[in-house]
């Protein structure tokens, strides 16, 4: 009973993973984009994660200085679902501003292992929904790479 928070956190986490049908990567519409919204990878400086998130290929990436004018971008938006654990939903997405259409999204669930575990591990120990959803193509759910590679799955650079 010493670790009641661990057991409750595990129950909430497992229940959340089983009940959620929107986990993983969903591409609703692929978008062709022109050179005006692109920059070369070697020209980009700054945040390593944002560079990875906006990269489309070895040569091209979305130009951060103009892309937000055309698209609404969520990058690792964290929503707390349960305070015990805690259990979080993490969402990344691309939407077209002109008509509000959601082009793609990556949704994952992560959970801490209770307050004692967080205190002992500096909060670094987490669990992810690592199962294959029924009817899906076999992708494992919850990897950070699903969020990081969302742009290259959504956008097709028209460089010619």
What does this 3D model show about the protein?
- The chain is α+β, with helices and mostly antiparallel strands.
- The protein contains 6 helices and 9 strands, in the order αβββαβαβββαβααβ.
- The chain has helices at residues 4-19, 48-54, 64-70, 115-121, 144-148, 150-154, and strands spanning 24-27, 31-33, 38-40, 60-62, 71-82, 87-96, 102-112, 126-128, 155-157.
- The strands form 3 sheets. Strands 1, 5, 6, 7 and 8 form a 5-stranded antiparallel sheet that branches.
- The protein is elongated.
- The relative contact order is 0.24.
**Helix share bin:** 25-40%
Major sheet:
5 strands, antiparallel
Shape category = elongated
Query: Distance between termini?
Result: 64 Å
Q: What class would the helix/strand composition place it in?
A: alpha+beta
pLDDT < 50 stretches: 132-142
The rounded Rg comes to 18 Å
Number of strands: 9
Number of helices: 6
What's the oligomerization state? single chain
What is the string of helix and strand elements? HEEEHEHEEEHEHHE
> What is the typical, i.e. mean, pLDDT?
79
Instruction: Name the beta content range.
Output: 25-35%
């Amino acid at each position: 009973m010493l670790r009641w928070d661990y057991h409750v956190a595990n129950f909430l986490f497992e229940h959340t993973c089983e009940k959620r049908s929107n986990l993983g990567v969903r591409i609703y519409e692929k978008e062709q984009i022109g050179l005006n919204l692109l920059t070369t990878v070697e020209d980009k400086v700054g945040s390593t994660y944002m560079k990875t998130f906006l990269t489309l290929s070895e040569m091209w990436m979305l130009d951060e200085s103009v892309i937000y004018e055309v698209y609404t971008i969520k990058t690792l938006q964290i929503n707390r679902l349960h305070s015990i654990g805690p259990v979080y939903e993490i969402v990344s997405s691309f939407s077209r501003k002109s008509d509000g259409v959601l082009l793609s999204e990556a949704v994952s669930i992560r959970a801490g292992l209770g307050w004692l575990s967080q205190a002992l591990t500096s909060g670094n120990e987490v669990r992810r929904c690592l199962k294959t959803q029924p009817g899906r193509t076999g992708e494992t759910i919850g990897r950070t790479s699903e969020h990081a590679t969302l742009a290259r799955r959504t956008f097709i650079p028209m460089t010619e």
